[in-house]
């Protein structure tokens, strides 16, 4: 029954004006609540109690320092999908894009434009015309580029011509022939370009580091067991071993703003991850950038990956799977860089419920000795689980190139057909600084 | 009359000159095969694949087969590529255990046969969806037949059971 307000019998058409003008503009007096706020119980056997337990846990994690945060997030072990960056699965890049909420953009960001004519006046080589010198990098003079070229030829010749290597064992060819070449190349380039990039002398070059990342994305209904019918989040873990990586003390600048990623498209895959095929295991949940937490070089610069014999393009061509070569490279770049940038963000204290305030940026070069592919990754969001992803318009971005040939062959002690664009891109990647 | 041709104690080739249907045709005999000889025989495998509808939803490029136990992944790949010209990307197999739990009227355990399942991922971006073999049909009974009268009668009965729609779903318990 609707309550009827008691009005006077003769209700005036114009009610009398508010007499006490003094009190018109004051705020309502703040009264201290006499009773504590009514919240759901913490120990009852109800859904709201479970919700409150989860809230309390989240609040506890937000309030603790970074090491405790990491240990609290990775404490409980459960069955999780192990994502391998170098995988044999077909169309792996679409699946990985869905798992990591990444949009793929072919080509590199404007900073690494391959066309020298587009770039406007540069301090050190104004005299050189764009047509005359195809290898021009802002901030690096032409002599240095020539030095780099000779360094690259020296490294190639050292491994493929001067060194006498015995016939490699089955499937050990890349490890024996290309591994040392890449190591020499990376260390040579880092030391030569140290004077053009002030970060490199303070950086740390890791050989054969480990990178791990653990995250949750999506959920499924448990089909069987004592927890049947309930929702369970799908957990993922990446354990990556890149060939080498460079870690720096300052963060690289972003490629595009956070808002620019709102328009990017991420492929949606409605099927369960185990159809990929992807397998589940239970073991330690690790989050690791390559160095422990107190290390000052906690931001990532560039990673270098080696394509193993199993996924070499010659072998794929023999099995008529040449179209999967690019797919494999993209999936590798995506997973490795997502794990690295995600771990960097976790080291700074950002996690699922506290999203990143600034984008984390890293680069990667994947090679099999002759062909080089370059990838740039910008991590805009680390909030990927169901509760936090509901209204999250941010997406992570991956820029990548097709594989470019560095040199054609080695004949009679000379490198034939050295590609200057690839050398220039390598230099640009390593010189990248804030 | 059949004329026989002897080729140095090799297999014989016989030419049947009688009209067809009068007598059974003798088996065609081929010359002995040695490496380098022309391949005259067609050897067909004794394996048969069954395309099945997947029980759980599969990605669009995955096709599910039931294959004989003796086949391997490479066999499946070659079979589909060479006989049916289907570009195969990857094959994964598993063996499904047929249950041994049910018992018959003599309380003996009855084994359901085991079978091997192959999940074939197609190459070159091809997709496949299992077709709907038994689509729903609008069954309209023929005019003037028994079925039509029965259906009409059933519909009228149902209508009579329903309450007055003006009552708005309220039962007859409240009322006169």
Automatic annotation (TrEMBL), chain A:
Principal subcellular localization: mitochondrion
UniProtKB keywords: Mitochondrion, Ribonucleoprotein, Ribosomal protein
GO biological process entries: translation
GO cellular component: mitochondrial large ribosomal subunit
Full protein name: Mitochondrial ribosomal protein S30
Subcellular locations according to the entry: Mitochondrion
Top-rank lineage group of the source organism: Eukaryota
An MF annotation (GO) of this entry: structural constituent of ribosome
UniProt keyword Glycosyltransferase, yes or no: no
Matches recorded under Pfam families: PDCD9
InterPro entries: Ribosomal_mL37/mL65, Ribosomal_mL65
TrEMBL record, chain B:
A GO cellular component annotation in the UniProt record: mitochondrial large ribosomal subunit
Pfam families in the cross-refs: Ribosomal_L23
Subcellular location: Mitochondrion
Claim: Transmembrane helix is one of the keywords in the record: no
Keywords: Mitochondrion, Ribonucleoprotein, Ribosomal protein
Biased composition annotated in UniProt, kind: Basic and acidic residues: 149-169
BP term (GO), one: mitochondrial translation
Region described as Disordered: spans on this chain: 147-176
GO molecular function, one term: structural constituent of ribosome
SUPFAM superfamilies in the record: Ribosomal proteins S24e, L23 and L15e
PANTHER family according to UniProt: LARGE RIBOSOMAL SUBUNIT PROTEIN UL23M, RIBOSOMAL PROTEIN L23-RELATED
Family: Belongs to the universal ribosomal protein uL23 family.
Record protein name field: Large ribosomal subunit protein uL23m
Organism: Perca fluviatilis
């Amino acid at each position: 029954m609707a309550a009827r307000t008691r009005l006077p019998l003769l209700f005036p058409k114009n009610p009398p004006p508010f007499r006490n003008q003094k009190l018109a503009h004051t705020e309502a007096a703040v009264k201290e609540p006499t009773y504590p706020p009514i919240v759901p119980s913490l120990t009852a056997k109800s859904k709201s109690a479970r919700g409150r337990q989860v809230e309390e846990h989240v609040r506890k994690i937000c309030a603790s320092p970074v090491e405790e945060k990491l240990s609290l997030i990775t404490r409980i072990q459960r069955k999780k999908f192990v994502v391998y960056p170098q995988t044999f699965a077909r169309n792996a890049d679409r699946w990985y894009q869905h798992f990591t909420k990444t949009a793929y953009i072919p080509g590199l960001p404007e900073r690494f434009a391959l066309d020298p004519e587009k770039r406007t006046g540069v301090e050190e080589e104004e005299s050189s015309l764009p047509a005359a010198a195809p290898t021009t990098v802002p901030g690096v003079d032409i002599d240095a580029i020539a030095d780099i070229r000779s360094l690259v030829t020296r490294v190639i010749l050292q491994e493929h011509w001067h060194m006498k290597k015995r016939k490699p064992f089955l499937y050990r060819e890349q490890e024996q022939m290309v591994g040392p070449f890449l190591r020499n190349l990376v260390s040579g380039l880092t030391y030569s370009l140290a004077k053009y990039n002030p970060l490199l002398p303070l950086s740390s070059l890791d050989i054969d580091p480990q990178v791990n990342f653990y995250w949750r994305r999506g959920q499924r209904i448990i089909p069987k067991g004592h927890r049947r019918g309930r929702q369970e989040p799908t957990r993922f873990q990446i354990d990556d071993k890149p060939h080498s990586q460079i870690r720096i003390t300052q963060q690289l600048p972003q490629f595009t703003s956070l808002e620019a990623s709102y328009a990017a498209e991420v492929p949606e895959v409605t099927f369960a991850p185990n159809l990929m095929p992807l397998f589940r295991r239970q073991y330690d949940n690790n989050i690791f950038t390559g160095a422990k937490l107190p290390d000052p070089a906690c931001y990532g610069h560039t990673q270098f990956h080696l394509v193993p014999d199993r996924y070499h393009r010659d072998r794929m061509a023999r099995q008529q799977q040449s179209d999967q070569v690019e797919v494999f490279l993209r999936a590798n770049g995506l997973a490795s860089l997502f794990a690295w940038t995600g771990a960097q963000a976790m080291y700074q204290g950002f996690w699922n419920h506290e999203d990143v305030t600034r984008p984390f940026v890293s680069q990667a070069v994947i090679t099999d000795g002759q062909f080089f592919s370059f990838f740039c990754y910008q991590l805009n969001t680390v909030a990927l689980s169901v509760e936090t992803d509901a209204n999250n318009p941010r997406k992570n971005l991956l820029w990548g190139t097709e594989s470019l040939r560095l040199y054609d062959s080695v004949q009679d002690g000379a490198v034939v057909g050295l590609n200057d664009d690839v050398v220039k891109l390598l230099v640009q990647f390593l010189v990248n600084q804030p | 009359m059949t004329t026989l041709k002897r080729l140095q104690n090799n297999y014989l080739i016989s030419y049947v000159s009688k009209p067809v249907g009068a007598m059974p045709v003798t088996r065609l005999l081929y010359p002995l095969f040695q490496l380098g000889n022309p391949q005259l025989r067609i050897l067909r495998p004794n394996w048969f694949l069954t395309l099945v509808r997947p029980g759980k939803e599969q990605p669009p490029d995955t096709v599910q087969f039931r294959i004989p136990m003796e086949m391997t992944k490479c066999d499946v790949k070659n079979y589909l590529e060479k006989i049916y010209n289907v570009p195969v990307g990857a094959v994964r197999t598993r063996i499904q255990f047929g249950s041994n739990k049910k018992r018959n009227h003599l309380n003996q355990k009855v084994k359901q046969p085991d079978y091997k399942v192959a999940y074939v991922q197609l190459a070159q971006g091809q997709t496949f969806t299992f077709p709907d073999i038994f689509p729903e049909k609008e069954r309209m009974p023929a005019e003037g037949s028994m079925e039509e009268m029965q259906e009409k009668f059933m519909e009228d009965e149902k209508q009579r059971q329903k309450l007055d729609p003006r009552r708005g779903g309220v039962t007859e318990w409240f009322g006169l």
